[in-house]
Amino acid sequence: MAQMNNITRSLLPPLPSGNETIVDNPTATAVGALILSIVFLLGFPGNLFIIWSILARARKQSVTTLLILNLAIADGSLMGLTPFFIVYLVLKNWVFGNVMCKVLFYLCLVNMYASIQLITLMSLYRLLAILWPQRVASFTGRKTVLRVLAVVWVLVMIASIPAMIFRRVKHKEKNISVCDSFHDYDSHVVIQYTMELVLGFLIPYTIIVVSYIRILRRIRKTKFGRRIRSEKLILAIVLTFCLFWLPYHIINMVQVTWALCPAGPVKTMLDKIWHRSRAVTSSVAFISSCANPVLYFFAGKSYIRREGLAFMARLFEGTALESASRKIRQNSQNCSREKEKDADAVMLKDKEADSVTNSSSNVKPVKNGK
C-alpha cells in the first residue's frame, strides 16, 4: 500500500517550491479541525433526526415541510463529508486520492448551493402566502413543488462543475499531498469564485432581503401585525446562513483580488491572507448546516412535553398551519364584510317596506263611493 501511494504521488504534479498551501498554518488547521469535529457531532445526528421526523412522524407534508426536508438532506450530506476534511486538517496531508479530492469538494459546493437556494424558496413561499393567500394553493401543489425542487437540484449540480474541473491533488516535499484549487490562469480563479459569490450569495440574498421587506411591510398593515413563529424561524435560518457563509465569500473575493492584482507587495499580502484564512472560514461555513437543527429545537421546545420525539414534526406542521390560519382569518374578514353589506341591504329593504306600509296605512278607506 505504501508503495502504491508513493507511485501515485510520483504521478501528481509538484507544487512550485516556496508556494504556501492552505494546510501550512498549524493554528488555522487546528482550529478548523476542532470546528469541524464539533459541527459533525451536532449537525450529522441533528439533520438525520429532522429527516426521520418529517418522513416518519409528520402527518402531512406541506410546502414548508418539503423545503425543510430538502434543506436537512443538503445539510446532512454536507455533515457526512466532514470526517474526510477533519483527517485532512489533522494530518495536513490529503490521503484520499485525486478522484476523491474532486468528488468531495464537488459535493460540498452542491450542498452549499442547494442550501441557499432552498432558503430562497422558503422566503419566496412566505411572500406568496402573505401577499396572495387565496391564490397560493393553486400554484404550490405537491407535484409542482416536487418539480421545482428537482429543477433546483439539477441546476446546483450543474453550477458546481467548476469544483471538479479546478480541484486536484498536488504533492509537496516529504511525500505530503494537498487537495486545493489549482488554476492554470488567473482568469480561472476569477471565474470560479465570482460565480460562487454571485450564484451562492448575492442573487439569492437579494431575493431574500426584498421578500422579507415586503413581508414585514404587509404584516404591519394587517391587524395581525405580530411576526408569527414561522416568520421568525425562517428569518433566523436566513440570518444564520448569512453569518456563517459571509467570511467564506469574503476570502473568495480576497483571492479574486489577488488574481487580478499585479505582482508586488499587495499581491503577496493578499496571497498570505487567503491561504491562512481558507481552512478556518471554510470550517466556519460548515457551522450553518449544524445550526438549523439547534434553531428547530429551540423553536419547537414547547412541543417536547406533549409530543415527545414527534415534537419536530409538530413544529413543521405548526408552521404550515399558521399559513392556513392566516388564509382563514383573511377569508373570515372578507366574509364578515360581505355579511355586513348584506345586512345593510336587508335593513334598507326593511326600511323601504316599512315606509310603504306606513304610507298605505295613512290612506283612509272610501265608503259607498264617497
From TrEMBL:
Keyword Ligase annotated: no
GO cellular component term, pick one: plasma membrane
PROSITE patterns per UniProt: G_PROTEIN_RECEP_F1_2
InterPro entries: Formyl_rcpt-rel, GPCR_Rhodpsn, GPCR_Rhodpsn_7TM, Leukotriene_B4_rcpt
Pfam families listed in its UniProt record: 7tm_1
Region (Disordered) location: 331-370
GO process terms (BP): inflammatory response; phospholipase C-activating G protein-coupled receptor signaling pathway; positive regulation of cytosolic calcium ion concentration
Compartments, record wording: Cell membrane
Keywords recorded for this protein, A-Z: Cell membrane, G-protein coupled receptor, Glycoprotein, Membrane, Phosphoprotein, Receptor, Transducer, Transmembrane, Transmembrane helix
Signal sequence region: none
Domain of life: Eukaryota
Compositional bias per record (Basic and acidic residues), positions renumbered to this chain: 336-354
Membrane topology: Multi-pass membrane protein
Protein name: Leukotriene B4 receptor 1-like
